[in-house]
Every structure is written in C-alpha cells, then in structure tokens.
Specification:
Helix content: 40-55%
CATH topology of the largest domain: Fic-like fold
Number of strands: 19
Structural class: alpha+beta
Strand content: 15-25%
CATH superfamily of the largest domain: Fido-like domain
Number of helices: 17
Distance between the termini: 80 Å
Number of domains: 5
C-alpha cells in the first residue's frame, strides 16, 4: 500500500479516554475494539504495533482519524496532504515536563513527541491527550493547529532535552490564549489561526442555534478585542465541527494557492495587456467567487430558461453551479444542519426571523412544492404572478441549503418569470430592486411565514411585495425604452445621452448613463458626455476619485 493511500481500516485511540478503537475508511465515527485494555499507554502501543505490522504509517492513521471525526472531504483526511506539506521525521517517547503558560508550573508528561519538517522548518507536536488536565482548564484555551491536519488536536511545542534524557517542553508562542473568550454570549471552545485569518467554534446551550463558527482578521484587530464576523450557525455539534474544519481547510488552501500565484508572478515573463486583463477578472476571495458563481447561473437562466424544469434535481444543479467557484463541499446538496432565517441589524446584532424545515424533511418538502407548483400551473386557475411569489415564499420557508438560499430564491424568481413570459429580467436586475427594499423584504417575509408550518400563513404580504418589485422593474424598463424612443428612431449616442441628461435632476455619473441607456456603448457614452461638456450643456464635477455631471442650467 502506498503512503498516500488510506487503508481499509486501522487501529487508533480516543484522545479523550485512550480507548482502543477501529477506524474504517469512508465511515464516520469509530468501532470499539475487543483488544481494549482500558489503559491509555497499553492501547497506544497496541494500535502502534498493529498498524506497523500492516504497513500503516502515522500519517495514514492521522488521516483516518481526521476523516472519521470531521469528514472525508477535508484536506486532513488525505495522506497526500501531509506529504505535500510536511515530512514526517519520527515519533519518540518524550518523558519530561511541560510548562503551564499562566502559572509557570511544570507538569509531568509521558507520551510520544511527533517530529515533522514543514516547508523546511522542523516542528514538534505533542498530542493534546498527553497534556495534563490542569493545562486544559478555563484559564488556558488551546488552539488546534492546522499545520498537520485541520481539527486534529496536536499542540506545537518547543522541547529541550537535558543530559539525563528528560525533556522540558513549552507551548509554542501563539498556540494558546489566556483567559476565557465570550462573543455574543457564545463561549469560544476552539480556535485555529491560518495566516492572519482565525476561525473559532462557539457554544451557547440556551441559544436557538447552540453552535456557531466565526472568522476574524487578526491583523485588523490589532491589540483590541477580537472582531468576529461571518457566522455559520447550527444545532448539530458534529456538523458544526465539520464546518469549522472545512472553513479552516479552505482558507489554508486559498492562502497556499495565493503564495504559489505570487511566486509564479515573480518568475513569469511579462504578460501581454490582454492576458493581464483576463487575470484581473479572476476571483481573488470568497466574495468575488460567490459573485462569479451567481453570474454563471444568471447566464444559464438567461440563455436556457426554457430547458430548465422546476424539479429538485435541476434546483440542486443550479445550486452546485452557484457555489462551485467557492470550493465549498455542500454545493448541489441539501442542508445537513438546521439553519435559520436571520436579519443583521446595523449594529451587527442578528435576529432570528424564522425557523425553517429540519434537514431530514428538506428533500421531501422541496419535492412537494415543485409538484404543487406544476399541478396548479397546469390547471391555469391562478395567475402566474400570484403563483410565483407563493412558490418563492415556500422555498424560503424550507431554506433547503446550508448557504445561498437568498441568491437561489432570486435566481428561481427570474427563472419562473422567464418561463411565464415576463422577460423584464433580461434588461432590469430583479435582485437590485429587492436589495433596494431589503428591510421591507424581511418584514413581509416574516408576515407571510407566520404559521407556515401549520399551513395557516397568509401569503398576501409577500405577494404584494413581489408584485411591487416586478412593477418597479417594468416602470424602470419603460423609462429606458421611452428615453430611447423620444430621441428618435435613428438617434445617435449623443441624442440618447442628452435625452437622459434632460430627464435627470441633480448629478449623475457615466455609470448611470451606461446602466440606463443599454443601446449606447461605453465608449460612445463617454464621447457623448465629453461633447456635451465641451458645448457647455453639462458641467463636470469631481468629488474625490469620482466624476459626476450636472446640467448647466441646474
């Protein structure tokens, strides 16, 4: 068996109790071994000797442990990940003492010390199971390090061997934090730092979502308190630990890719202008990747809406394409943790608006609303402009995905409008119209989903809201068409831009022209603006880096 392959099974021990266990490839959790001696050290020796005889390395056992605990799609569940990022040197029995970073008290340690070489740098790790309980109290919260594997509890240490053979070990700087951290009433129980990014796992037993993972930028915080953001909430601890590890692993891979790209850019020959422009359009972070994914699905709907039936399988495919650029593993799959419809207030406080359908009920619920929509549409008893908002409201109440539910609801709105002959979305962004009235959106959704689980809800508020959004799109579209018509059938770009300026009160930008005059190209619009300015019809205003225009008669 190759070193970068997983064995069918291996022996290991539980970090918490030292119990001897069996890990099977591809399976979550573990099996109790009949060879368990109830003694940690003896069990470790049994596991080590058994694995050695079967040709299973420490790296392979670590990958098996990571996969069984946190999911088999993580980097740490692949032995090659260790081989790419670390060279295993050896594991040696380290008898000695480790220093309490708070009280400067030394506690005895008798366990294996793991030696690795990571990117040419020698590092030593001590299993968390070997740490004295006194060190694992409230005064010191230990950080799970991502150098070897995301989520595997091994602590980096500095070890010095005395002449008598014993070791004196100190926790490496940055591997621990002093004191207890509470954020939004959640107790931070695990932290992992990758570069300047840090991910934490928080627990609050009395909260609607007892577990949360957050991110923060350590560099931006400076010496101040941690500023956590981008929370993922859930009720299943195992699933949230998996989310915690997945976020850490994704960040690690992104940083690794950026390092490679920077190195390549330093050594690569000078690019042509076209190549440079193409490179600049590549997504650089998750936000940009999400935008690019949204545009991908948007283009699919624009081009192929008549060939996309409203079925769960197609909805899953659209969701897969929506998230495929992010590298997230749950793209194209229904949610596996309980989620909530929340609103973020200006002060950063989150309010739970609604508790959606449970994960195990989600596939059947999506199937049901698709069947109901198709059946009602076939009867032609309800106008599509009434039926579409009802479907979207049901979709949002189910909230079928771990991430991307809002974006998917707006994409499905566009799809159904197209399929029912309402093609205004080709020219006017429905999503932008919703974004303009986001506060109202949350309010009407809350009104429409009250009593939804009991089938006693009133869809009317949401229907009215969506009709107003669609109407606003058509009004905006008619204004643009009217502007073009008023300029004459054979109007030039100059005529169209001048007509737009005549209709505006106050200042406007070149971007406004391009957005509201789709018949005019960018270069033509800029040329028309320059001519109108030179003629004195428009006055150019410069505010910082931005340039705006206003009619001279204003």
């Amino acid at each position: 068996m190759r070193r970068n392959e997983l064995p069918d099974f291996c022996l290991s021990t539980l970090p918490s109790s030292g119990q001897l266990i069996i890990l099977r490839k591809g399976e979550r959790g573990y099996y109790a071994s009949d060879w368990d001696t109830r003694k940690r050290e003896e069990n470790q020796n049994i596991a080590r000797e058994h694995n050695r005889r079967r040709g299973i390395s420490d790296i392979q056992e670590a990958a098996m442990s990571a996969g069984s605990m946190f999911g088999w799609n993580l980097p740490g569940a692949d032995p090659q990940w260790y081989l790419d990022n670390a060279r295993y040197v050896n594991a040696m029995m380290a008898k000695g003492h480790i220093k309490d970073p708070v009280m400067s008290i030394y506690y005895p340690v008798d366990d294996f010390l793991l030696r690795y070489e990571i990117l040419g740098e020698a590092k030593m790790y001590l299993p968390v199971s070997a740490l004295p309980r006194e060190l694992l109290g409230a005064r010191s919260q230990f950080v799970m390090q991502p150098d070897l594997v995301c989520g595997v509890p091994a602590m980096p240490v500095k070890a010095q061997q005395a002449q008598n053979g014993s070791y004196t070990m100190d926790l490496e700087s940055g591997s621990y934090v002093i004191g207890e951290i509470i954020n939004a009433d959640y107790k931070i129980t695990a932290r992992v730092r990758v570069g300047n990014a840090e991910f934490v796992l928080g627990e609050h037993p009395k909260a609607p979502s007892p577990f949360v993972t957050w991110q923060r930028n350590c560099k931006n915080d400076g010496d101040g308190p941690p500023n956590f953001f981008w929370g993922h909430y859930g009720a299943d601890r195992a699933a949230m630990i998996e989310d915690f590890c997945e976020r850490t692993g994704s960040e690690y891979q992104e940083q690794k890719e950026r390092r490679v790209q920077r190195e390549q850019s330093r050594t690569a020959p000078k690019k042509e202008r076209g190549e440079e422009m193409s490179e600049k359009t590549s997504p650089r972070n998750r936000d940009e990747k999400e935008i690019m994914g949204y545009r991908d699905v948007l283009n699919t709907i624009h081009e192929s809406h008549e060939f996309i039936p409203l079925r769960p399988s197609y909805i899953l495919q659209l969701h897969r394409d929506l998230l495929k650029r992010t590298g997230l593993s749950y793209g194209g799959t229904f949610k596996n943790v309980q989620n909530y419809i929340k609103e973020t207030l200006p002060d950063g406080t989150e309010i739970i608006r609604f508790t959606p359908v449970a994960p195990y009920e989600t596939p059947a619920a999506v199937e049901a609303i698709c069947d109901s929509y198709a059946h009602t549409q076939a009867l032609e008893a309800i106008d599509p402009l009434i039926l579409i908002p009802v479907f979207i409201c049901d979709f949002l109440c189910i909230h079928p995905f771990n991430d991307g539910n809002g974006r998917m609801s707006r994409l499905l709105t566009l799809l159904l409008l197209y399929q029912n002959g309402f093609e205004v979305g080709k020219y006017i962004s429905v999503e932008k119209e919703i974004e303009k009235t986001k506060d109202i959106y949350y309010d009407v959704l809350e009104g429409a989903d009250f009593g939804w689980h009991e089938e006693k809800n009133d869809y009317t508020p949401f229907i009215r809201y969506m009709l107003q959004v669609i109407l606003s799109c058509y009004v905006d579209f008619e204004e643009r068409v009217g502007m073009m018509q008023s300029s004459g059938a054979k109007s030039t770009a100059y005529d169209v831009v001048k007509a737009y300026a005549d209709s505006k009160i106050g200042k406007f930008t070149s971007a406004d022209i391009i957005a509201h005059c789709p018949s005019v190209g960018r270069s033509s619009a800029l040329a028309a603006l320059k001519k109108l300015t030179d003629e004195g019809y428009l006055t150019k205003l410069k505010t910082g880096r931005n340039i705006a225009y206003v009619r001279s008669d204003n």
